[in-house]
């Protein structure tokens, strides 16, 4: 799981941050956007093995992290279906529809700046509206 999270953090999330740097020349933004699309296509290929979750065959913190990162894509005008990354899009929609995610997002959207808790088995994750979680 650690390697998966590191891969998403370095190849997807950091690239989103790079695109969002203020006053970045359009050509550089496009370079980062292309790098992001390549990373998403690679993730999509990884998910074509039939897995339902990011790692370990069960819903883990890696799924919550990947979901939060994928949720940031509209901020950089990237659409999974346009890439195309159809399997990753289906994964995203499946995670988004989970009751625990729906509850957490409802709490976050009802009180921006507050925290919401998502329980995953015996683990608990706390989310706060901000750059990592779009409310």
Please provide a written account of the structure.
The protein has 135 residues and is mainly α. The chain has one domain: Glutathione S-transferase Yfyf (Class Pi), Chain A, domain 2 (Up-down Bundle), CATH 1.20.1050.10. Helices cover 55% and strands 9% of the residues. It has 5 helices and 2 strands, in the order αααααββ. The model has no long low-confidence stretch (mean pLDDT 81).
Concise synopsis of the structure shown:
The chain has 135 residues and is mainly alpha-helical. It is built from five helices and two strands.
Annotation keywords:
135 residues; mainly alpha; Glutathione S-transferase Yfyf (Class Pi), Chain A, domain 2; two-stranded antiparallel ribbon
Write the SSE topology.
Layout: H1 2-19, H2 26-47, H3 61-71, H4 86-96, H5 99-110, E1 115-120, E2 123-128
Antiparallel strand pairs: 1-2
Helix pairs in contact: 1-2, 1-3, 2-4
What gap, in angstroms, lies between the N and C termini? Answer: 26 Å
CATH topology: Glutathione S-transferase Yfyf (Class Pi), Chain A, domain 2
Helix content: 40-55%
Q: What is the H/E string?
A: HHHHHEE
